[in-house]
Design a protein that fits this description.
single chain, 178 residues, alpha+beta, five-stranded antiparallel sheet, 7 helices
Amino acid sequence: MKWLGSKHIKPLKLSENIFFVKEMNEKIEFLTNPEDNKEYIVLVPKEKNAKKIFNYRKLDANEKTAKEYLENNEFNNALTEYLKIKTKDSLDIAIKENNFNSLGYKALRNKNYAKSINIFTLNTKLYPNSANVYDSLGEAYMKSGDTINAILNYKKSLALDSGNQRAKNILKKINKKK
């Protein structure tokens, strides 16, 4: 079993369907959800008569997690999955704006411009009101040599945060070169 970055987790069998996972500090059981007839890992409620919540569906053989799609450069599929996560829980750690920016900058440092642009673009879809994500996307376009898209994204960043001095300075430099 894998859970939040931990690999090779071995749940302790407590009964036929119930297991204890020390990495989660939870009891789990494997159940079929009557609503969609799919298999789920369900946390065993701590209260005796509490309702069981079917949060963690077992992926089909051809399905991937949002992170796996992202790692495989399947950005449209990754975006779809991350948007589902955001809809379900906008505070989920899997969709933190800063995490995507860090990944985008890592790709940018490695001169993988297409990947950085795709990651930053994904971040703009998740956080369309963040000046920072457009600034980062502008930087990726600039370093890739696409001045037109760099300008568009720096301007979008400024529209969201008129105090973004960095974007102002870069746009001034670009205008001087013309």
